[in-house]
């Protein structure tokens, strides 16, 4: 039997030597493209079924002598247990060139509980320090952030350093799988860090890939109804991207504001982009015909610049974050958004923006000023501010 | 004495790849120096060394771990055990000094002439500072009762007291206070006409009274025309204060003192703080920690809880002054540690002058706070081989509280984190005389102004490095209060202090550097434009021909040219500075522990990945 959904291959950006110094001092970039694939679990079942087609498919991805890594986002035990209900893992004998690594990532109810506990703790403004740290620890949200980042980095490491192909799957291939593949692309590929590239990434790896937004982003953390299918995977992804932006503040073209907007729109939106659970449903509901796209609105020139990071400078390198606990921070802009004033931080940010943009197209404004002076000798020098 | 050992390895404690730098280790009279194969230098001041430990012999050599007071930990592997043993013993000796005269400050020579040295000490004038504050005035006067240190040895000669406090009152009150430390002015708020005063605990026991002391407090409250009552803040936990009563000391009884409102604001004592920091360092020093272990370690240490307690106390003090216009008298046991922290922070929150670079320096040296007499900082930072029980991170806590404020109010401070870190560095370095001695008397006896150099001129020379590019002087006009939010979640772990030297942990790209550089560029460009405009005007005025199309001069980004001033020579800059606007890019997968499967990976890490100097150059 064929596994539940066809793998979708994403050819990675060719692993390459970083930008400068110029190629003459180093070796030319190797162009062997690595592929990162995602799927759902193989339906090996309790009887250890095999599937020729699946084996052939995965076999063709690898050349002679090459090896691949399968990153299974379930624990080894959970994967084994999945066999009882018809799922399972790729047996080594049938997929000899692939090495399987287990990186358990939290999903489902547990993740939602974690989210709810964190929001509860943040809302308690009378809490004492010990209790606060205790609740931060016991909600485990930051542990999940670390685990997600580590796994994505592992996938990236396999591709970039080991030059191996990577297959990522969990159980359904719609949650933690997408988290890992999308995050790995942000880490590896500079084009995914541009505003347009990031939108494309979201379209591809979350929306088209079938992350069930309707089920997962139903009520968020305040609702009393604990829905079975609800889980903040997308938020976890946004949190991880935010961590990257903290560690590499010049490397993402978009700002925190975009991430917050995406978070908002995933749960409740005037736009159809995050509606339904997969492409099939969107077709049935005629989403494209009946709604407006979030991207269309975001990309309007006037809107767009609100989401840009003024410190952005294209970084052609792979960005490897530190995943030590000391380096992982609580996303204050999200979790304390309505709890404490960010006035001073906002003002400081505006100052940064002014400082940076003030020097940005100096050639333009300075050039203009100077030409004006040339044509009108009585023109007074304007204040640049 | 010169020692050098070759082929020593310096391990990176957070890297997973166990990569190390090999080089030569040198010992000089004042420093330990490690020069690696790419000529990079690591300097460690002997005074900074808190502990040296020899670990069990391994196949690669003899490991030596050095822990420093600035929280740096270096891990060397010395090939031969004999050498390791020698170094270990030498370091033990060099890092312990029994006499003041052996301290670096007395031998440090930055090659200045005598007048420069003297000027360095006079840079900041305390009398000016008091004038700026508004004293002496009709309610407060300068008293010379302690001019020979006869009344209180640990107080300075110049003390400000209420005008109605006569000498007998002063003498009587000092007899009733622990170690003679009677109530004196710490900070005067001229708009509210309210004062922050400080002292030590009264020797009240269970029922003792002292008329003069009661008069003293009355004098203080009378010196405030705006408010009849005053606050007395005891910064100890109530239990401790009560326990002190059994030893004949204790706290003020509201019944005996008219018009006082007594308040406990429990901050733990130096022993608790010392052990708290130790636990924190254990946590921060562990590799491969899980988030949960880190957070529970942080919680167990109680460190952030103490920082919050200090800031909470300061907020209470500040509200009393700013909202109620009431004077406040602060004390703990001996009026040294917690009192200093609270009074200092209070003044910082009240007065925007202390949020400027010069203001902070003034703040530090003034009578009120740290060095001239009222704070045994010397004991606490353990420069001399004294009682280990007297060591406590009180000053570190103070700096950390200030840092928390700079995080909450990014535009309110003229100085940046690097400034705070540099001061911390030098408090422990004993390179300058400013931080030596426990009181004015001692400092005079040591002849610090003649025999040592002052840190302030060096810091002022390098001001650019310590400036906050986001500083807005209009943020809080003079004497406007800063009101920090002290809910628990506002307090963060100060990674840049406790992991200052762990490069792999840092944000990979420095926003601060970028902004500093851009500010410089902006200024430079503005200047260029003005010059060009002037030129154009001139030409237009002079000749009628030649529509000269002036090319704009190429923008030369002024890199932060740090000429290395003598005292900071050889120190690794806290913020890596280079020509490119961006610093660390990409970093390195091997520096991070992504997986236990590291062993699986066959490919060797690229040979050269330069983290600090811009682009990672990797061999393919």
Automatic annotation (TrEMBL), chain A:
Stretches with biased composition (Low complexity): 1-18
Region (Disordered): 1-50, 359-385
Signal peptide positions (record): none
Domain Myotubularin phosphatase span(s) in chain numbering: 1-335
Gene Ontology CC annotations of this record: cytoplasm
Xref: InterPro entries: Myotubularin, Myotubularin-like_Pase_dom, Prot-tyrosine_phosphatase-like
SUPFAM superfamilies linked to this entry: (Phosphotyrosine protein) phosphatases II
Domain of life: Eukaryota
Family, as annotated: Belongs to the protein-tyrosine phosphatase family. Non-receptor class myotubularin subfamily.
This protein's name: Myotubularin phosphatase domain-containing protein
Source organism: Athene cunicularia (Burrowing owl)
Gene: LOC113488209
UniProtKB/TrEMBL annotation, chain B:
GO cellular component: cytoplasm; nuclear envelope
Keyword Hydrolase: yes
UniProt region (Disordered), positions on chain: 540-560
InterPro entries reported for this sequence: Myotubularin, Myotubularin-like_Pase_dom, PH-GRAM_MTMR6-9, PH-like_dom_sf, Prot-tyrosine_phosphatase-like, Tyr_Pase_AS, Tyr_Pase_cat
Active site: 332
Residues engaged in binding substrate: 269-270, 332-338
Positions of the Myotubularin phosphatase domain: 120-498
One GO BP: phosphatidylinositol dephosphorylation
Keywords of the record: Hydrolase, Lipid metabolism
MF annotations from Gene Ontology: phosphatidylinositol-3,5-bisphosphate phosphatase activity; phosphatidylinositol-3-phosphate phosphatase activity
Similarity field: Belongs to the protein-tyrosine phosphatase family. Non-receptor class myotubularin subfamily.
UniProt name for this protein: Myotubularin related protein 6
Gene: MTMR6
């Amino acid at each position: 039997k064929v596994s539940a959904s066809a793998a979708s291959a994403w050819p990675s950006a060719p692993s390459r030597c970083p930008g400068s110094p110029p190629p003459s001092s180093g070796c030319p970039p190797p162009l062997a493209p690595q592929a990162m694939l995602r799927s759902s679990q193989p339906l090996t079942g309790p009887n250890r079924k095999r599937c020729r087609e699946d084996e052939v498919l995965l076999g063709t991805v690898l050349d002679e002598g090459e090896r691949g890594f399968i990153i299974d986002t379930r624990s080894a035990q959970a994967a084994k247990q999945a066999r009882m209900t018809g799922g399972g893992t790729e047996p080594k004998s049938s997929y000899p060139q692939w090495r399987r690594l287990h990186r358990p990532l939290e999903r489902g109810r547990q993740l939602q509980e974690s989210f709810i506990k964190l929001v509860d703790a943040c809302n308690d403004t009378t809490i004492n320090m010990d209790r606060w740290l205790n609740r931060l620890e016991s909600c485990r949200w930051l542990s999940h952030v670390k685990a997600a980042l580590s796994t994505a980095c592992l996938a990236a490491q396999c591709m970039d350093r080991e030059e191996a192909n990577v297959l990522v799957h969990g159980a359904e291939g719609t949650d933690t799988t997408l988290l890992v593949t999308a995050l790995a692309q942000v880490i590896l590929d500079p084009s995914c860090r541009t505003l347009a590239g990031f939108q494309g990434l979201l379209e591809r790896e979350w929306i088209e890939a079938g992350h069930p937004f309707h089920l997962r982003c139903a009520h968020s953390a305040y609702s009393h109804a604990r829905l079975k299918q609800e889980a903040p995977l997308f938020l976890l992804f946004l949190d991880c991207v935010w961590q990257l932006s903290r560690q590499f503040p010049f490397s993402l073209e978009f700002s925190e504001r975009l991430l917050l907007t995406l978070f908002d729109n995933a749960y409740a939106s005037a736009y159809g982009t995050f509606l339904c659970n997969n492409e099939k449903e969107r077709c049935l509901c005629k989403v494209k015909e009946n709604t407006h796209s979030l991207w269309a609105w975001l990309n309007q020139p006037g809107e767009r610049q609100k989401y840009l990071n003024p410190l952005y400078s294209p970084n052609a390198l792979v960005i490897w974050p530190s995943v030590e606990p000391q380096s992982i921070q609580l996303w204050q802009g999200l979790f304390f958004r309505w709890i404490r004033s960010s006035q001073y931080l906002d003002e400081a940010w505006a100052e940064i923006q002014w400082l940076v943009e003030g020097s940005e197209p100096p050639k333009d404004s300075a050039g203009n000023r100077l030409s004006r002076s040339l044509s009108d000798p009585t023109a007074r020098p304007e204040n640049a501010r | 004495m010169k020692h050098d050992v070759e082929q020593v390895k310096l391990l990176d404690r957070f890297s997973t790849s166990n990569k190390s730098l090999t080089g030569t280790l040198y010992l000089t009279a004042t420093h330990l120096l490690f020069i690696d194969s790419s000529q990079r230098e690591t300097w460690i001041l002997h005074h900074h060394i808190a502990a040296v430990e020899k670990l069990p012999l391994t196949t690669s050599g003899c490991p030596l771990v050095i822990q420093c007071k600035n929280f740096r930990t270096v891990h060397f592997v010395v090939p031969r055990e004999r050498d390791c043993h020698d170094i270990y013993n030498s370091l033990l000796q060099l890092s312990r000094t029994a006499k003041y005269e052996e301290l670096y400050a007395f031998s440090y020579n930055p090659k200045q002439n005598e007048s420069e040295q003297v000027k360095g000490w006079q840079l900041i004038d305390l009398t000016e500072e008091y004038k700026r504050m508004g004293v002496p005035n009709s309610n407060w006067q300068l008293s010379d009762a302690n001019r020979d240190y006869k009344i209180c040895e640990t107080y300075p000669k110049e003390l400000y007291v209420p005008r109605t406090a006569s000498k007998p009152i002063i003498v009587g009150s000092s007899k009733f206070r622990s170690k003679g430390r009677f109530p004196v002015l710490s900070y005067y708020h001229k708009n509210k006409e309210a004062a922050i005063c400080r002292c030590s605990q009264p020797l009240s026991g269970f029922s003792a009274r002292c008329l003069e002391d009661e008069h003293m407090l009355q004098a203080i409250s009378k010196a405030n025309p705006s408010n009849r009552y005053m606050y007395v803040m005891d910064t100890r936990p109530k239990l401790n204060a009560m326990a002190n009563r059994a030893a004949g000391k204790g706290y003020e009884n509201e019944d005996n003192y008219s018009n006082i409102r007594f308040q406990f604001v429990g901050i733990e004592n130096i022993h608790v703080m010392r052990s708290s920091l130790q636990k924190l360092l254990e946590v921060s020093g562990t590799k491969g920690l899980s988030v949960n272990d880190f957070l529970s370690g942080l919680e167990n240490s109680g460190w952030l809880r103490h920082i919050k307690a200090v800031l909470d106390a300061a907020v209470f003090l500040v509200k009393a002054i700013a909202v109620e216009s009431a004077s406040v008298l602060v004390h703990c046991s001996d009026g040294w540690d917690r009192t200093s922290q609270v009074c200092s922070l209070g003044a910082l929150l009240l007065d925007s002058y202390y949020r400027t670079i010069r203001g902070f320096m003034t703040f530090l040296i003034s009578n009120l706070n740290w060095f001239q007499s009222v704070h045994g900082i010397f004991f606490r930072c353990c420069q001399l081989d004294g009682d280990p029980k007297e060591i406590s991170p009180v000053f570190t806590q103070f700096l950390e509280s200030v840092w928390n404020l700079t995080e909450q109010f990014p535009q309110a401070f003229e100085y940046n984190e690097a400034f705070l870190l540099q001061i911390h560095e030098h408090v422990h370095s004993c390179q300058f005389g400013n931080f030596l001695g426990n009181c004015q008397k001692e400092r005079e006896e040591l002849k610090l102004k003649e025999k040592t150099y002052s840190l302030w001129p060096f810091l002022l020379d390098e001001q650019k490095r310590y400036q906050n590019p986001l500083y807005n002087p209009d943020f809080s006009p003079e004497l406007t209060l800063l009101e920090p939010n002290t809910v628990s979640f506002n307090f963060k772990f100060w990674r840049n202090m406790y992991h200052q030297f762990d490069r792999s942990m840092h944000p990979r790209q420095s926003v601060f550097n970028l902004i500093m550089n851009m500010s410089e560029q902006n200024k430079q460009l503005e200047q260029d434009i003005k010059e060009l405009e002037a030129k154009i005007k001139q030409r237009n005025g002079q000749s009628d021909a030649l529509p000269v199309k002036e090319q704009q001069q190429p923008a030369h980004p002024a890199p932060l040219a740090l000429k290395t001033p003598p005292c900071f020579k050889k120190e690794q800059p806290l913020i890596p500075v280079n020509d490119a606007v961006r610093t660390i890019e990409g970093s390195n997968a091997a520096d991070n522990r992504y997986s236990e499967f590291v062993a699986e990976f066959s490919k060797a890490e690229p040979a050269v990945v330069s983290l600090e100097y811009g682009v990672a150059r990797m061999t393919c």
